[in-house]
Amino acid sequence: MNEINKNRISKSAFIHPLAYVEEGVEIGDSTTVGPFCIIRKGAKIGQNCKFTAYCEIRENVIIGDNTSFGSRCTISANGYVGKNTTIKYSFVLTDTPNLKEGNLKDVKGVGDNVLIGANVTLMPGFRIGDNCIIGACSQVRANVPSNEIWYGSPAKFFKKNEK
Known about the structure:
Low-confidence stretches: none
CATH architecture: 3 Solenoid
Structural class: mainly beta
Strand content: 35-45%
Helix content: under 10%
Shape: globular
């Protein structure tokens, strides 16, 4: 990886000329960042990832290898998304300050091998486990254990993911 503006961006990564990448970012081999994406400081993005367009990856987010995002996805600061995960368009991993703890934001994330449909919101402080499927237009307001399929608003358990 080359040291460019205090970033570590692989030579094989492609950053669209209309994308914006702040300082202190790591981007792995063969990752593609599409137009109008914003990658904030301290983000660490793995290898073979794909960001379509208009995605925002905020401060200190960690994204595993082989993960892809449709357009208009937002991952809040300090969140994470595991490896081998597919996220369709307009996914939002939200954060809200915990006012009882001096505005500390409680952000969790998404495990490995997850499929998330379009227009899904993951509310603050909750996690989606490994090998899960979240149906389109769902609002996740609870921890989703590994190997489960959930959908709805609020999202509810549908069945075990047997794959």
